[in-house]
Amino acid sequence: MPEELSRREGSFRAFVAQRGPEGFSRGVQEVRGSDLEAAELLVEVRYCGLNYKDALASSAAGKVARVDRLIPGIDLAGTVLESSDPAFPPGTEVIGGGAGLGVSHHGGCAQLASLPSEWAVALPAGITAFEAMSLGTAGLTAAMCISAIEERGIGPESGTLVVSGATGGVGSIAVCLAAHRGYEVAAITSKPKASAWLESLGASVVLGKEQFSDIPPKALERERFAAAVDVVGGGVLASILAATRRRGVVTACGMAGGAEVPTTVFPFILRGVSLVGIDSAGLSRSERASLWSRLAGDLCPGNLAGITERIGLSQVEDVLERMLAGGSRGRVVVDLSL
Ligand SMILES: NC(=O)c1ccc[n+]([C@@H]2O[C@H](COP(=O)([O-])OP(=O)(O)OC[C@H]3O[C@@H](n4cnc5c(N)ncnc54)[C@H](OP(=O)(O)O)[C@@H]3O)[C@@H](O)[C@H]2O)c1
After folding, report:
1. Is residue 226 part of a domain?
2. What is the domain count for the chain?
3. Is residue 74 within 8 Å of residue 107, measured between CB atoms?
4. Any atom of ligand 1 within 6 Å of the Cβ of 59
5. Residue 5 pLDDT exceeds 90
């Protein structure tokens, strides 16, 4: 019997979040291969990068999961075992992500995954599967932010680029990426003890989140920043907008600190500040493939070894809990062989 058939007919280990008559539960389970959705690619998952969205998809109150029983994991890297798409023959190393992966369709937090080939890109030359998951959606998002800022005419010579939620996945990669490109980087964090670590990633200055109040006291503050990568939202985003210089560019990609933004129109109509929305889940396959090539090339954030923690499936629950509590520090990659 071919290996891939035996894999589909057998079982594999996965982290599962489920809602049923007895309430909500989550944990590591044996899952039958036949429980996976039918799709073009059957992938042996080697690594799965964890994201804040996975923590929401795995929590009772998260409102991200679109099905009652879900293997979370919006990012995966692995090897194609079975394929009905000639673009990805068996043996191809792929990165999976985007669209419904880990949201409405079982995701990467498992030893086996079945996914539409539209959600896969070939692992680009120059990076390993582990490095790809160290970047993951967080890296793609940071790259989208920096690229959106630079498409609007900002560069390292324009002034300081500020990153909020700087210790998190998107934030820490954005700090590395921007510093690697020559920006002076200001990092906003709620963790004063992480200052030295953020400086080691390339931040020139570390600012306490408490300086960015829930409601900015003034509609416009001193012009401090030329550009921003904001993952926190809420009052932090409003405060950044008020302190962005004329014709500066602020990218908004997250809401870890709140979805309501108490701002005014003044940054936009008196300083021409641009607020740019970032939606990595909406990238087409060709856009994702092109960004992955850039992450392996000109948008490489440098060495991510110092920001990545490797864990096994049994540690996933604790890490997701820590994420929701704002305790993230860098990236966490699940090694499915552990
Ligand atoms: N739009 C997109 O395409 C896209 C893609 C990826 C992620 N996101 C969003 O970006 C945000 C960050 O994602 P991530 O994967 O980087 O998450 P993460 O690794 O868990 O990092 C989140 C960081 O946000 C900061 N934070 C501030 N207030 C917080 C609060 N009340 N609760 C939790 N964290 C708080 C913390 O950094 P400090 O302690 O340093 O302040 C924390 O480390 C999330 O909202 C996520 O949904 C959006």
Report:
1. yes
2. 2
3. yes
4. no
5. no
Residue 289 in any domain: the answer is no
Q: Is 188 in the same domain as 149?
A: yes
Instruction: Tell me, yes or no, whether 285 lies in a domain.
Output: no
Residue in the structure block whose two tokens are 């931040």: 203
pLDDT per position as a tens digit, 181-214: 999 999 999 999 999 999 999 999 999 999 987 8
- Which residue minimizes the CA distance to atom 5 of ligand 1? 141
| Residue appearing with tokens 């680029």 | 161
Q: Is the pLDDT of residue 230 over 90?
A: yes
Q: Give this prediction's pTM.
A: 0.94
Question: How far is the centre of ligand 1, averaged over its atoms, from the C-alpha of 223 (Å)?
Answer: 25
pLDDT at 305: 85
| 253 CB within 6 A, ligand 1 | yes
Q: Do 215 and 331 have their domain in common?
A: no
Give the CA count within 13 Å in the CB-facing half-sphere of 214.
Answer: 2
CATH of the domain at 60: 3.90.180.10
* Domain with 311 in it: 3-123+304-335
In this prediction, residue 314 carries a pLDDT of 97
Provide the 3-class DSSP secondary structure of residue 87. coil
191 φ, ψ to 5°?
-115, 90
Closest CA to 7 of 79, 88, 69, 109: 79
Q: Which atom of ligand 1 is nearest to the CA of 50?
A: 15
Confirm or reject: Cβ of 257 under 6 Å from ligand 1.
yes
Ligand 1 test: best mutation among 195, 328, 332, most atoms within 8 Å of CB? 328
Give the residue whose CA is nearest to atom 39 of ligand 1.
190
Do 256 and 309 reside in the same domain of the chain? no
C-alpha span between 102 and 202 (Å, rounded):
32
Token representation of residue 316: 């996933």
Q: How far is the CA of 256 from the centre of ligand 1 (A)?
A: 4
